[in-house]
Amino acid sequence: MIADVIDHLAGIQPGSSLDRLRARRPAAREHAQRSYDALFSPETEEEITLVERDAVAAFVAGLHDAPGIARFYADRLAELSPGLLAAVESEVSAGATTGPYGVYPGEGPLSVESDEGLRYRARRPGDLGVRLAAAFEHAHLLVFRPREAGRESLDALARAGWSATGVVTLSQLVAFLTFQIRVVAGLRHLQNGATS
Length: 196
Hints:
It contains ten helices and no strands. The two termini are about 30 Å apart. With about 200 residues, the chain is mainly alpha-helical. Helices cover about 65% and strands about 0% of the residues.
């Protein structure tokens, strides 16, 4: 078990300047790790399996173009379900885009910011399975089209077998990964600035 996944992903060494910087906010550090532990070492897999969690994590990190973090979750996935990894990597390629996207209704002042962009659908749903294909489509929506997440996407998850609790956990997973990726990127930037 990793004591601090953000330190691990950012390459922070004990006693380093970044370690001391993070130590100034012990509650933030502790809560981030507890969130990771709750999402990736759950007490039960009843609503969402470890394989689904790691597959979604590798997919979301890949969408964010965070190769080190994507590899971390891909390696975890490979230990649990090696055959699934190629399908996940294929879906990352299919879903790669820049965003954010979304269409504002009507002719209001925000309509000038409307951008249709990519509307991702799982390319290999047979390899992923119905539940995971729906989870990827929902995760892509949350990453690139968050203002369009609504009843339609929730209904699609329900049709694929996701319970209300599972949907909440899935959405928390995507939100946590987005947070984790940004924190790690910021820490790496600080680390690179300190060494240059």
